Amino acid sequence: MIAITREPSGSFESCELSYIDREPIDAARAREQHRAYRDALAELGVTVRHLPELEGYPDAVFVEDTALVLDEVAVLLRPGAESRRGEVESVAAALGEHRELLRIEAPGTLDGGDIVRVESTLYVGLSRRTNHAGLKALAHLVLGHGYRVKAVPMRDCLHLKSAASYLGGDELLFSPAWVDLTSFAGTRGIEIDPAEAHAANVLPVGDTILVPAAAPRTAERLEAAGRNIRLVANDELAKAEGALTCQSLLFAENNV
């Protein structure tokens, strides 16, 4: 496995926010938490390709929103926040070594955080950052590679992956307050602990699931379901509406 990550920006405090109030961010602590996140990936056998800080782009650490990496191709996305669109090209340069590149064009907008892949189905949340034109463009680009795209209604959260994470097999971790399990055909759900509103975004890596350290009760539910858990501190990056999946583009190594 390969993970593309990026160093948090020195202008991190100027990040885009949609659903939480702005509060001071300790930049040094955010960098340390991101370093620990990369270390966790490496210890699980992932090759981490760490990109330098992208000056002038406070949200650039959240590389997931710039691209979707599939087994056959990578799709360069068009983030819904205009301030983030300049992040895409440097990620494209890194991904071009591993995949053929396709691209979402205007007027479509699509954030990677709004895409939950369940085998050959790409569930796309229609959010403040992702529009119907972006969904249709994605469906057109991936159809020939055997994927279908399905829209998912969501509520009160930034991205679909804020509300649901695919765990493999037919299991999904989800927040019933933000998305309905019935939107994901043929899946069984594990509900997050209701006291941990932001716990649904977790990152499976092999047979281990990275879970935010602020969600110990949800971690216990996953352990009770037979999952191997590793807690990762993320509270400083969470002040920028950042979660675990959005800090990396994780994919299997292929020959281009």
Task: Supply the key terms.
25% strand; 3-stranded mixed beta sheet; L-arginine/glycine Amidinotransferase, Chain A; globular; 256 residues; alpha/beta
List the helices and strands and how they pair.
Elements: E1 2-6, H1 27-43, E2 47-51, E3 67-69, E4 73-76, H2 88-95, E5 100-103, E6 115-118, E7 121-125, H3 132-143, E8 148-152, H4 160-163, E9 164-168, E10 171-174, E11 188-191, E12 203-205, E13 208-212, H5 216-224, E14 228-232, H6 235-238, E15 249-251
Parallel strand pairs: 1-2, 4-5, 7-8, 10-11, 13-14
Antiparallel strand pairs: 1-15, 3-4, 6-7, 9-10, 12-13
Low-confidence stretches: none
CATH topology grouping: L-arginine/glycine Amidinotransferase, Chain A
How many distinct domains?
1
The helix-and-strand class reads: alpha/beta
CATH superfamily: L-arginine/glycine Amidinotransferase, Chain A
Oligomerization: single chain
Largest sheet, described in full?
Answer: 3 strands, mixed
Assigned CATH architecture = 5-stranded Propeller
Report the radius of gyration as a whole number of Å.
Answer: 17 Å
Strand content: 25-35%
How many helices? The count is 6
Q: Portion of residues in helices?
A: 10-25%
The level-1 CATH class: Alpha Beta
* Mean pLDDT reading: 93
Kindly state the number of beta strands: 15
Q: Would you list the SSEs in sequence order as H and E?
A: EHEEEHEEEHEHEEEEEHEHE
CA(first)-CA(last) distance = 15 Å
Q: Strand order across the biggest sheet?
A: 2-1-15
